[in-house]
Amino acid sequence: MRRFPWILTLLTVAALVLLIGLGVWQVERLKWKEGLIAASEAAAAKPPAPLDQVLSDGDLEFRKALIVCPGLATAPYVELQSIHEGQAGVRLISACKPAGADFSLLIDRGFIADGVSARPRVIETSLPLVLIGEFRRFDPPGGLTPAPANGRFYARDTAAMARALKVQGPVRPEAVFAVTQTNPEFAALTPSAPPAAFSNNHFGYALTWFGLAIALLGFYVALLRRRLKKDDPQTAARRALGDRKEEEF
After folding, report:
1. Contacts of residue 183, Cβ cutoff 8 Å, sequence gap at least 6
2. What is the C-alpha separation between 16 and 30, in angstroms, rounded?
């Protein structure tokens, strides 16, 4: 009788532990992602609040704040290459030092399509502008991102944008998207915040890992049964008898 396939069994057990572990990890990721989506939706549903209150709450993602930005409507800006609703263009980014604050924010004033060459005027003024801004976090630019040129950026880089705008003092790292008009007289500038980009495919990934584990287990059981069947004494006797009959024939 053949020996029990210990090596195959150990390899199968190790693979099963790995596949089941990956499936459980994806289930945990699913719960985490669902909680993140729920928290983001709850934050987005909150009404705009004064900037000081929003900052003191801690979690700024998707929170809307009432911000007083002196001179924002005619402030200098840099352009960020972007796409809005399938259309290529740029977003105008300006610095804002909120009234009474000791820091600056980088305000995304809105999107301008590539077909529009005009831009809002730039003059120095301290006229107050009240806007509603939505706070968002973003990933730092990768190593393959093109370097900014001629005032145009290809990724959000708070430090580099602040230097280009000659901002003095600390700058908060978050992006703030204007969701109300900063320049009502310039209709081509469309204020907007990008939609939430949460991919939630963890349920499908979990099913894939668990399915592979079941398939592996089925393959192992089938292989083991076939091996044991060959080693069964009655089966071996019948096989030997059949071999002798073939030789006599």
Report:
1. 73, 109, 110, 120, 189
2. 21
Res 154: pLDDT: 94
Give the integer Cα–Cα distance in Å for 232 and 225.
10
Rounded to the nearest angstrom, the gap between the alpha carbon of residue 5 and the centroid of all alpha carbons in its chain is 45
* pLDDT tens readout for residues 115-145: 999 999 999 888 889 999 999 888 888 878 8
Residues contacting 64, CB < 8 A, separation 6+: 44, 46, 47, 48, 49, 54, 132, 133, 134, 135, 179
Amino acid at 69: C
Q: How far apart are CA 1 and CA 53, in angstroms?
A: 78
Match 């287990």 to its residue by tokens.
217
Question: Each residue of 98-134: b (16+ CB within 10 Å) or e?
Answer: beebeebbbbbbbbbeeeeeeebeeeeeeeebebbbb
Instruction: Please give the C-alpha separations between residue 6 and each of 1, 54, 183, in angstroms, as whole numbers.
Output: 15, 62, 75
Longest CA pairwise span in the chain (Å): 112
Q: d(Cα 153, Cα 82) in Å, to the nearest integer?
A: 9
User: Cα(249)–Cα(246) distance, rounded to whole angstroms?
Assistant: 5
| pLDDT, the chain, mean | 86
Contact (Cβ atoms closer than 8 angstroms) between residue 218 and residue 39: no
